[in-house]
Specification:
By secondary structure, the chain is mainly α. About 55% of the residues lie in helices and about 5% in strands. It has a three-stranded antiparallel β-sheet, covered by helices on one side. Helix 1 packs antiparallel against helix 2. The radius of gyration is 28 Å and the shape is elongated.
């Protein structure tokens, strides 16, 4: 960054003394160095983020069983991460899924009949073996896979 700044100052002070070819050559050198600096910055930032994700993943792998046991024993339906991470659901009791009930309620009030085929690719199907009623189903723990 210091070298780029020095080259810019040189270009500004010598601008009147340089012909077009010399000026263009110096501008290209500055642009090339700026691109290299930007790439180095992005590489460093990516390495930092990857290291952060790796550390978070290792911590989560150690904490997941403790979190799951605590959530089940205390009757929680879901545990959320409010730290600003991309994936905020850390654990969820599949007995609390309401997707099928919401779809049924919508279909009941909708003037358009529901399709007779499987749900669209974006729809969430009810897990097999669930009745939809959380009181008749034992808690089933799910964990979130390690972040890439």
């Amino acid at each position: 960054a210091d070298e780029i700044e020095r080259l810019r100052k040189e270009l500004d002070t010598e601008s009147g003394k340089l012909n077009d070819d010399q000026r263009n050559s110096k501008v290209r050198v500055i642009e090339t160095k700026q691109k290299a600096l930007q790439r180095s910055y992005e590489d460093a930032q990516n390495e930092y983020q990857q290291a952060q994700q790796d550390i978070s993943g290792r911590i989560y792998q150690k904490m997941a069983p403790v979190l799951e046991k605590y959530a089940i024993s205390n009757g929680y339906a879901v545990v959320l991460d409010v730290s600003g991470q991309q994936n905020t659901v850390l654990w969820g009791n599949t007995g609390t899924l309401i997707t099928s009930q919401v779809v049924e309620a919508y279909n009941a009030q909708s003037p358009v009949p529901p399709p007779s085929t499987a749900p669209a690719s974006g729809a969430q199907a009810k897990p097999s073996g669930t009745s939809g009623s959380p009181t008749t189903q034992p808690p089933v723990a799910t964990t979130t896979p390690k972040k890439p």
